[in-house]
């Protein structure tokens, strides 16, 4: 395996991790008024974007253990954020759907996320912003291991999606 050149790329992982951590921290500060944890916010966004998702799929995309998702779903259902419904094609499977309460909160989330994204990208020209986005999408696509690539769908939704 060739050694990495000391051209700054050796810091890539740290920079991506720190950027994600700081964006998440800033988002949590802005969104804290809704009374949801960051794990609950992540689940809520996934359920709103993918109505009728299974708990197993939620565990996969959120990268947590199924038992953790089950507990999270229990708490969110008790709070009126989501509802479980029987899968019409498989009685053993329960599908997760957002409630009106979560759809309204999702709109607020989009506003908070837009603020955080704008703060993160302050000082970059429109061209530099597009370069950053394309670069990150290429990295994700390169490392996806057969998962659906994000390249086209993310570009179609725009930078604030």
From TrEMBL:
Protein transport keyword on record: no
Regions crossing the membrane: none
Domain HTH marR-type residue range list: 9-141
SUPFAM superfamilies from the UniProt entry: Winged helix' DNA-binding domain (SSF46785)
Domain of life: Bacteria
InterPro entries (alphabetical): HTH_MarR-typ, MarR/SlyA-like, Tscrpt_reg_MarR-type_CS, WH-like_DNA-bd_sf, WH_DNA-bd_sf
Name of one Pfam family that matches: MarR
Single biological process term from Gene Ontology: response to stress
Keyword DNA-binding carried by entry: yes
Protein name: MarR family transcriptional regulator
Organism from which the protein derives: Pseudaminobacter soli
């Amino acid at each position: 395996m060739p050694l990495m050149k000391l051209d700054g790329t050796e810091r890539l992982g740290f920079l991506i991790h720190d950027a994600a951590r700081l964006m998440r921290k800033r988002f949590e500060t802005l969104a804290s008024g809704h009374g949801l944890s960051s794990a609950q916010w992540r689940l809520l966004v996934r359920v709103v974007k993918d109505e009728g998702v299974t708990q197993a799929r939620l565990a996969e995309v959120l990268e947590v253990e199924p038992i953790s998702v089950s507990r999270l779903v229990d708490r969110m259902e008790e709070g009126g954020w989501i509802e479980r419904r029987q899968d019409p094609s498989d009685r053993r499977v329960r599908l997760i759907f957002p409630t009106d309460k979560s759809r309204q909160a999702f709109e607020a989330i989009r506003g908070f996320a837009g603020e955080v994204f704008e703060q993160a990208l302050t000082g970059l020209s429109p061209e530099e912003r597009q370069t950053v986005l394309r670069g990150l999408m290429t990295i994700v696509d390169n490392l996806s291991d057969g998962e659906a690539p994000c390249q086209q769908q993310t570009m179609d939704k725009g930078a604030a999606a």
